[in-house]
Automatic annotation (TrEMBL):
It comes from the Eukaryota. This is Uncharacterized protein. It comes from Polyporus arcularius HHB13444. Residues 60-81 are annotated as: Disordered.
Amino acid sequence: MALRILSKTRPRLPSGLALSPSIRCQNLAASQTVVLACPPLSSPARALHLHPARTSYVHQRRRHSTQPPRNEVQAQGGAVQSFPDPDRPDLFYHLFTPPTSLSSTTPVFALSFLSTPLPSILSSTVLGWLPASGEGDSAGLNDFVENESFRDILHEAVQSALRDGADEVQKNSAIQTREGWMHIHDSRNLPALGRIGDPDDIIASVRVENGEIMAETYQPMPSYRLATSDGVLQLTEGLAARLTEILEARVREEQR
């Protein structure tokens, strides 16, 4: 599915700010600078290559919000404004103004499942980042940069929820599987019954014996992506609740 960028569909921003169609970002993993650019709104979006042999995508339909920002706070190093995605009420955009650890000149949005303003742009609770710049720029949402630190929290949450039997959907899937390996799929793009999902939508795999999940066999899927053309990470209810618990605990630790 091709990535779509819709005109006149951007989040509510402070005066003078808008999502940027292009930005020069720092590839923290490879320690090299890459240019991330959006195509014209009239043409199909192109895949964005952020890392060698690795691609990240974002597909988020944005609608202008008439509601005021959910949170506004000015703190040293913290987000200055936070608001929910109108299509994903569990997903929040936190605005950081420059200078930041990511850019000395460009405002940046940090995406998170936490509604409260984040203490740091590099918080491990951040899924990834989107650039923001001057008023009048066209909206561009294919420059999402994934936060690798978030993956560790994600897998910790999923594995612990499976161990505790906290998700009914996964428990029922194990009963149906009975014996063998079971995939934990991202709910943004579930496969048809009896089919295996796309590699970038499989969060992990786990062994099932006698219809019971063996959580100690949990294996993260290296090809999984936090954001694809089908959207940002979506979990089943039990897994999502456990992830939120761990994220809230982690941000409290970071604030100490």
